[in-house]
Specification:
By secondary structure, the chain is an alpha+beta fold. It is 27% helix and 32% strand.
Length: 155
């Protein structure tokens, strides 16, 4: 009984997402020309409130989890920038906190960002701004994104 009580206390204080999720997760970044040709090796900058990292398109970066969205800009000679915004979504670790009553854990995981996840594979298009949402992910497929609401409304 004492072990069970200790486990429940520790889980409530530590935060469920902190236990099951690292502070980073992988994100593969691909770039395409407007006519759909793959461009490998473009310089891509990914930034959120935890900082900026650089990766070449076609590669996978370890991105820092955060409750804030991530901005992505890829540059390649002869192409207009490919820009995107990866939406930060709550992951299952946060729901574990809520279900098991770890209110303190939920606060910790929110503040550390471990309760959130970005899409794991995004495909940007040069000359366009796209929004990438993890809810659009399909196993083994890149998220192609959609036009931001303001751009879609003007078309």
């Amino acid at each position: 009984m004492k072990r069970l009580l200790a486990l429940v206390t520790c889980t409530g204080l530590c935060g469920c997402a902190s236990v099951v999720n690292d502070s980073t997760h992988p994100m593969k970044v691909e770039t395409l020309t407007a006519d759909g040709k793959t461009v490998a090796g473009a310089e891509c900058k990914l930034s959120n409130d935890y900082g900026l990292i650089t990766v070449k398109s076609g590669d996978t970066a370890q991105v820092r989890r955060s409750s804030n969205d991530m901005d992505i800009t890829c540059s390649f000679k002869g192409q207009s920038d490919a820009r995107g915004r990866a939406i930060s979504r709550v992951n299952s670790g946060m729901f574990g906190n809520i279900i098991f009553g770890g209110g303190i854990g939920a606060i910790i995981d929110h503040n550390k960002g471990t309760a959130y996840t970005y899409p794991t594979w995004v495909r940007l298009i040069f000359g366009q701004m796209r929004v990438f949402d993890r809810t659009d992910e399909k196993e083994g497929m890149p998220v192609t994104g959609r036009l931001p609401e303001t751009q879609a409304a003007s078309k």
